[in-house]
Design brief:
Helix content: over 70%
Shape: rod-shaped
Distance between the termini: 107 Å
Oligomer: single chain
Largest sheet: none
Order of helices and strands: HH
Radius of gyration: 34 Å
Number of helices: 2
Strand content: under 5%
Length: 84
């Protein structure tokens, strides 16, 4: 059976496979971009949480130093004194 298509044209299945390959590559690129965005967001969240932890630790240090300077053991000692 002879074909009338020119030698440079693709068979429909070849075009579909090529289109599928392009679609797959586009989807892969889209997913990689999404993963990169999520990794960036995750890193920002880690940094934000670390900043919260550092701020909390500074506040605890200040509170501990203030309690030592006042000669008080902190709120627990004051609360025990009030309960007696």
């Amino acid at each position: 059976m002879a074909t009338n298509r020119p030698p440079s044209s693709e068979h429909p299945r070849e075009r579909a496979a090529t289109a599928g390959g392009v679609a797959d590559r586009a989807r892969t690129a889209q997913l990689r971009a999404r993963v990169a965005a999520l990794e960036t967001a995750l890193e920002r969240e880690r940094e934000r949480r670390q900043a919260v932890i550092a701020r909390y630790e500074r506040l605890l240090d200040e509170r501990t130093r203030a309690a030592k300077n006042d000669g008080d053991d902190g709120d627990a000692g004051g609360l025990l004194d009030r309960l007696r």
